[in-house]
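Backbone description:
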Amino acid sequence: MFIGIDGNEANITTRVGVGQYAFHILTNLSKLDKSNIYHVYLKSPPLPDMPPESSNWIYHVFGPSKYWTRFALPLKLFFQKIKLDLFFSPSHYSPRPCLIPTVPTIHDIGYLHSLDQFKKKDIYQLVNWTKDSLQQAKHIIAVSQFTKQELIKTYQINPLKISVAHNGVNLKNPKANKSVLKKFKITSPYFLALGTLKPNKNYPFLIEAFSKLPPNYQLVIAGKKGWLFDEIYVTVKKFHLESKVIFTDFITEIEKVSLLKYAQSLVIPSTYEGFGIPALEAQILGTPVIAADIPSLREILEGSCIYINPTNQNSLITAMLAIPKSKEYLVKLGLVQSKKFTWENSAQNLINIFNHL
């Protein structure tokens, strides 16, 4: 079978979210599947850590880069001599128009619940391009049962048209280094929040709850700026926490491992998540997790954490104060739970789906 892939989300230097997903999926597809022929389409040359070319893993690099999935890619697919059996996109956006059966990956549709939290241009693309991809799709990949149910409810899609292939977890170098703490001026026991600064992460709620903890703690928020993040910094100033709350901006893989390893707990107070990879990464490293009691996190954590109400600060404060006594128990549960999710399993599930299609 000849399978096309949009490899652009994987082919970036600072991979977060969908970029991490795409990179690990492509890496493991290239390792595990020697039967199908993969044609990977890019708008810039593959980075050194992308899967190497082989007899069944072939790159095609072309432009123009602007509106690539709506212009350059559809034209390339239409005029090329290669006859693909299906086209897989690790993101929401499939090439359109496209005569080849398409298979997009939907990570979440949280933006539909918070349209006011995005720039007009971004929300137009998210809403309309995702809808186009779903309507055109031969089949759809959802990263969780929660996302699948959201798609069925919102778009009235036949459940048989959607397959769930959970995300995996892979820490390239799980060795922690305490010098990272020095770099970010972390000098006290700390709680860690990991993820892009954007509204659904609920960071102002976390910061206000943290302000009511004893003064011997620090709070580290590790992630690059996303959108509508001003309220986060305003909340820090409001509670005079400039010396207690540390913002790292984008972090490397080694920095992430180190921050997770030495944290009192990873805190995920999100109001919405499609999956929640950082929770599993923390558990792999033996760090307890405090997580919002929302469907996606219940699905992947299965009671291996302390759940909190993401609108009730007392529940979060109580959970953070309970970590010292419950840490050993939570670590044991987390180590068992996190082993259920690997990128190898994710890629193999996709291969099975491709072959079935």
